[in-house]
Amino acid sequence: MTERLKNMLRVFSAMSLIFFISCQNGRINEKLINNMSSNERESVVFSAVSKNQKYYSEVADVAEYIQEMSVYDEELDSTYIIHITLPPDFDKNRYYPMYMMTDGIWRLSDHAELRPLMVNGEIEDIILVSIGCNYGINAEKTETRLVELVQKSGLFLNFITDNLAPYLGELYNINYKRSALMGHSLGGLFVYYAVFSHDKYKNEPFNYYVIASPSFFMTNNKSNWKYGDIEKDYFKRNKKLEKEIYLTVGDKEYGDILPNVNNFLQRSKKYGITTLDYEVFDGTHSGYVKPMLRKSLLKFYKKGDF
Which of 174, 175, 198, 213 is the most buried (most CB within 10 A)? Predict the structure, then answer.
């Protein structure tokens, strides 16, 4: 072997090693295209968690670890309150998975409950994010939640995919290939919509989708999209679904949630979806959510499993 060939092999080996390490750290193709307008960018304000948040008392002891971000979206003509919890020993040079949750009005307290999983070393370091309505809006009313989560789900997904996720990626190094989007009830219905619509966007900030107790029955209204059609349209555009789905319900759900979920499971088999993990928890519609959140983090981010 000539000396020149030996040198070429050394260079190739070194480049291969760098590429491998970069992939392991989530550094390849991590930047997303940010479509925020100048007005939307200028609307961003960071502050401490506001005591105007209805459930502030549940996080008062750990509020110092949570950042609050206010941002306006032109397409939805709405301002959103985003809560962000960084890892305990946050390093701006490291890449972290992001776990994003809808219904921030209720999920704020979960920042306080889930952060100890990182502190205690049960899961790897991640960035926790929750999306809530602006203060002064009754974010707990079904009529309020229906707007973004169902009736304007396309615009809301656009806000998350093309505005919020890329913007957060500019502030922190996010490993989108190992990031998750979670929603419960109407939020679960929205995440269902998101997983079967991800291919419509250039940005793909999530690989894991946590669909908890999806309120499929809310799509029976003629003014809303029909959930079976979302899957059908997806598989007209694609041969397979590679995104990972964690589908959960409580064993004491109300209404038609369990029958509708079972129908979805049957259709998933028909479409050949192999990336769906289904779990039934002991509890009511809302009562099982906190242990489910903990389980989902251990499922995707358990220390030593990455």
Answer: 213
